[in-house]
Amino acid sequence: MTGQQPHPDPSQQPAGATPGWTPPPSGGTWYPHGMTATATLPPPLVPAAPARRAGRVRIGVAGLLAGALIGGGAGAGVVALTAGGATAGTSPVAAQSVVIQDPESATAVTAAAAKASPSVVTVYVTSGSGSGSGSGVVLTDDGYVLTNNHVVTLDSSTDSATVQVRTSDGTLYDATVVGTDPTSDLAVIRLQDASGLTPATFADSDDVQVGDLAVAIGAPLGLSDTVTDGIVSATNRAVATGSTQDDATVIDALQTDAAINPGNSGGALVDAAGEVIGINTAIASVASGAPGSSSQSGNIGVGFAIPGNTAKRIADEIIATGSATHAVLGVSAQTATDGSAGSEVGTGAQVVQVQPGGAAADAGLQAGDVVTAVGDRPVTSSTELTAAVRSAAPGDDVTLTVRRGGETTTVEVTLGSSAG
Question: Where are the annotated coiled coils located (predicted)?
Fold first, then answer.
């Protein structure tokens, strides 16, 4: 693959723009829902802003499974559910609670799981085109639950599915979708006639550090109340999921090596105190088969979660209004390189187009400017610029480091707002 192709800031394209495509760093491709890498990518298009975006990562990594939905009418390679509701190849698994049997020998993982597991549920979704299952996190005692958009929409294949939720005590509830936010891959559902549920406690995800204990709780392969542990491998990891240019989501993620598999989508990533630091949403998978074929690999120690602060803000907005807002800069951008032939090593996000009347225009940004940092966070690609902006809230003030010509300066920007 040669050259750089436009990668816009996905939530802020000018009106009438045409979807664009982004070349990833060298190596395989991250795709949601088990789609594998293709040998070639589409040619460059006019930069714009699809909701979700595919990108490439290091050699050997070919799939970013946005997160592990089990089943679904769309999305090649997912694990189907049988007519009886069981995961293919397994028997139905009853819900179980994590109980500390011997406090004197309990580990930090045991304690974290015991606190958080009552707040994690299994989500079952059925439509005329298929069925699937994922996970969710209880927000309120009267039944609001946070999960992934791709769980309740069956991998974006349907807008009208039947949703049921099983809590950790085994109770099965009917549920309705309160609202979805495809831009962040989040959704809120509400259990009918629920009371006395155990809401999750959210930690400040801005305080998470690399090396912190990370415990993933959810229903991988339909196995409710499954607990896996690891560490936080990276913070502020800009990843782009999506099997096509039209269904991409850029996530400013927490990366973890805690085992995350199909079915963990929408479940909790918690810290040593059992407090939610992220909502599990995607995993990387190793390429399998010929280019263009489909696969659904499991955990390889590279999983991603939406930071808890972002997830909680969006969930609160959906509960209050039915939808969510996002910070926007008001530019289309592409990854800048050092100019050497065939180089794909990013040196910043180059502004291709500035939206009139947007936040960037008000701050004086111009086409050709190269953004190299947002605050103290380095930016080496357009994906990283998008993720950094997405991690902020509408109306936040940010400082951009901008290279214009041979000079570098800083620009203060008040971010705009757009609906998801």
Answer: none
> Which amino acids are annotated catalytic?
150, 185, 265
Backbone angles phi, psi at 209, to 5 degrees: -125, 150
Gyration radius of the chain over CA positions: 21
CB burial readout 33-54, b (16+ within 10 A) else e = bbbbbeeebeebeebbbbbbbb
Instruction: Please tell me the least confidently modeled range out of 235-244, 297-306, 381-390.
Output: 235-244
Eight-class DSSP state of 294:
B
DSSP-derived letter for residue 80 is P
Average pLDDT, the chain: 77
Asked whether the beta carbons of 4 and 23 are under 8 A apart, the reply is: yes
Global confidence as pTM: 0.76
Are 256 and 182 in contact by the 8 Å Cβ rule? The answer is no
| 412/398 Cα distance (integer angstroms) | 6
Calpha distance 88→71 (Å, rounded): 9
Whether 121 contacts 149, CB under 8 Å: no
Which residue did the predictor score with more confidence, 417 or 13? 417
Give the number of other Cβ atoms within 10 Å of residue 28's Cβ. Answer: 21
CATH 2.40.10.120 fits 1-420, yes or no: yes
**pLDDT tens for each residue of 237-267:** 998 876 555 556 888 999 999 999 999 999 9
Is the pLDDT reported for residue 40 higher than 50? Answer: no
- Cα angle, residue 217 at apex, residues 212 and 222 outer, rounded to 5°: 150
